[in-house]
Amino acid sequence: MKPANLHLLWRDRAVLSRFRTGVSLHSHTLYSEESMAFVPRYTGAVPFVGHAIRQQERRYFERTGRPLDFSRAFWRPPLAPSEALELEKRQIEDTLDLDALVSLSDHDDIQAPVLLSLVDPKIPVSVEWTVPSGATFFHLGIHNIPARRAAAVMSELAAVTFDPRPGRIREMLAALNAFPETLVIWNHPCWDEARIGAARHADHLENFLLQFGPLIHALELNGLRPWSENRQVIRAAARSGHPLISGGDRHGLEPNANLNLTNAATFDEFVQEIRHDRHSDVLFMPQYREPLRARMIETMWDIVRDYPEFPADRRRWSDRVFYRQDDGVTRPLSAIWTCHEPWPVKVFLGGLRATKSPQVRSALRLALGFGLDGGQEIAS
Questions:
Q1: Closest Cα partner for 128 from 206, 70, 191?
Q2: How many domains, in total, are found in the chain?
Q3: First-to-last CA distance in the chain?
Q4: CA 158, CA 156: separation in Å to the nearest integer?
Q5: DSSP for 299-321, written as a single string
Q6: pTM, rounded to two decimals
Q7: What beta strand segments (E) does the chain contain?
Q8: Residue 374, in any domain of the structure
Q9: Could you tell me the strand order of the sheet in which 5-8 lies?
Q10: Burial level of 15, CB count in 10 A (0-12/13-18/19+)?
Q11: d(CA 322, CA 194)
Q12: CB–CB of 37/70 below 8 Å?
């Protein structure tokens, strides 16, 4: 079995004529809690921004005597559920001229799709479920949970995350498989998000596949991970026999960089195509060709910019970024910095704002390298 047909829009737009529907999977709304721990990793070697953040870290250490711990900070994506849904639909309907199916899946939270489904019952109730596994953790995209069971299922998922014994994980996955309309996807399986080392992560991956692979329906090619990592996913799927599927992992204002193409008219039909026909057509959009670090800088800008058109409680970036203080209480930065932004933060924001200049953007593209993984191309 071929795990998926891969299509590149910049090489073959004619492929769209064979399909009626585009499917957007795995994107986030303001209900997701996102760690800031990635900031120094992605910006360390980036011109302008890396220097600004190092200044911020030095200044913090001078004032407090301890290093700035980004893992104590988290942010929430800027878009409300309806805005995220519209962004993904617009790319599919306007750019591709296809019907749109969109499944939003926040981290361990179903509020966004539940709210949307009150207006449109066809909206799938989905979640990105965190599953601890030994020294690491994995994320499973659970799409199209039956609406009548959604609250109970979410409570059960949270309980397994808290007590992730293999038997409990297996029982939970078996219960999800009992819903014929539900799709279970292993999101970015080859990403060593816990940073335990490539070899240890590979061992955990193989063990997780061995234990739970038959209860997982597809492995994700991720639109925010490098192609070298997605190639590893392709090899893993070839070994395990899983189909491959898209997952854009959008957090900011850039719509998902990959999608599924199908002739299914409903999400239930699409699920059957993956679960039973085990067939998948994945389309990579042109934004996937852009340097990954440049795209991450764009996302960071989406995090820290202000949105004057938004409601007052999420208009400022400091209302959407939170810090867990020494007393254990989590507060938005707007409550911590009541007068004005500290000087190091102004430097940090200035570095990010510089990236919006066309001249700086051109320089960044040259410095970071244009193309997949610094110039490598997807193998057709």
A1: 191
A2: 2
A3: 17
A4: 5
A5: HHHHHHS--TTS-GGGSSGGGTE
A6: 0.87
A7: 5-8, 21-25, 34-35, 73-75, 99-103, 125-133, 136-145, 183-187, 218-222, 244-247, 258-262, 281-284, 321-324, 330-332
A8: no
A9: 5-8, 281-284, 258-262, 21-25, 99-103
A10: middle
A11: 21
A12: yes
pLDDT value at position 15?
A: 97
Task: Tell me whether residue 182 is in a domain.
Answer: yes
Reference 205, options 304, 109, 281, 138; nearest CA is 138
For the segment 197-222, what is each residue's pLDDT rounded down to a tens digit? 999 999 999 999 999 999 999 999 99
Q: Please check whether residue 157 is in contact with residue 110, taking contact to mean a CB–CB distance below 8 angstroms.
A: no
295 vs 159, residue with greater confidence: 159
pLDDT confidence band for 376 (50 / 70 / 90): very low
**Phi and psi at residue 262, to the nearest 5°:** -155, 165
CATH of the domain at 146: 3.20.20.140
Q: Residue 267: phi, psi to the nearest 5? A: -65, -35
Name the 3-class secondary structure at 137. Answer: strand
Q: Which position has the token pair 């008219």?
A: 265
| Residue among 50, 118, 10, 76 at smallest CA distance from 371 | 10
Query: CB under 8 Å to 292, separation ≥6 — which residues?
Result: 224, 225, 226, 373
> Are 226 and 340 contained in the same domain?
no
- Which residues lie closer than 8 Å to 307 by C-beta, 6 or more apart? 78, 314, 315
